[in-house]
Amino acid sequence: MTPTAALRGHARALSRKPAALIALCVLTVIVLCAVFAPWVAPTDPYDLASLDLFASHLPPAWDPGGDPRYLLGTDSQGADLLSLILYGARTSLKVGVLAVSISVLIGLVMGLLSGYFRGWLETIIMRAADIQFTFPAMLLALLIGGLARGMLPVSKQESAAIYIVVLALGISHWPHFARLVRAAVISESGKNYVMASRLAGRKHLSILFRHILPNSLNPVFVLATMDIAFAIMTEATLSFLGFGMPSSQPSLGTLIKVGYGYLFAGEWWVVVFPSALLIVLLVSLNVFGDWLRDRLDPKLR
After folding, report:
1. What is the CATH number of the domain that holds 153?
2. Full-prediction pTM beyond 0.90?
3. Domain limits for position 190
C-alpha cells in the first residue's frame, strides 16, 4: 500500500469516529495557536512595555467591569490572560514533545538491543527498567530535577529550567518504551523475513534498522501520543508544586499555580481558563491516542 492510499484509509476511518475527529480538530487548533503564539496572541506578555498596571485584575470582557481589549481578562500585572495562555500552551507542548522524544530515543535503543541480542544485555537493561519502575515517575522527575539544579549555579537555574524539566521527564519514562519495543522486536525477530536476512549475510545493524525497526514503530507512535499528555500533565503538576517552569517562562501549570492564589479573592478567571485549556488538551490527546491505537493495532480492528 502506498503512503497516499494509507493516508486516505486513515482519513476514512477517522471520519467514521466523530469523537476522534473532533479531538484531532481541537488538538490541531491548540497546537497551531500555540506554535504561532507570537503572531496570534493580542499582546506579548514578555514585553514589559506592553503591561499596564492600571488594567490589572480585570475580569473577562463579557463580565461587568471587563475591558473589550482583554477577552479573558488580565492578571495582577495587567498582562492579557489570553496571550499568557497561548504562550503557556506553547511552553507546555514544547516540554511534552521534547520529553517524549528523549523517552522514545532511549527506549528505542534499549528495546532494540535487549530484544534482538537477548542474553546478559537484555537482563541488564530490563533489570534497570524494573528498578526504575519501582519509583513513581513524579518522584523520579523531582529527584532528577533536584540533582540537576544542585549542580548549576543559582544564576543559571531559571534559564536552564526548561532543559532540566525536559531531561527529568524524558529519563523518567523511557522504560515504558523499552519494554514495548523489546516485545515488538522479539515478535518480529522470529519471522521468516528476518531469518532470510540473516541467511543472506546481512549485518545485525542493517537487520535492526532496515527491517525490524520499521515494523515495530506502530505501538511506539500510539504510546508516544498518549505519553505527550502524561508529560504535559506531569510538568503542570511539577510547576504547580514550584519545581517546574518559572514565572518568567510560564507553562499552563505555572499559570494555574499563580492563578490559584487569586481564586479565593474572587478572580476566578486567572485559574479557570488555563485549567480549562489544560483539560481540553489532555482529553484531546488521549481520545486521539485511543483511536490511533485501535487503528494501528490489527488485533483491535
Report:
1. 1.10.3720.10
2. no
3. 84-300
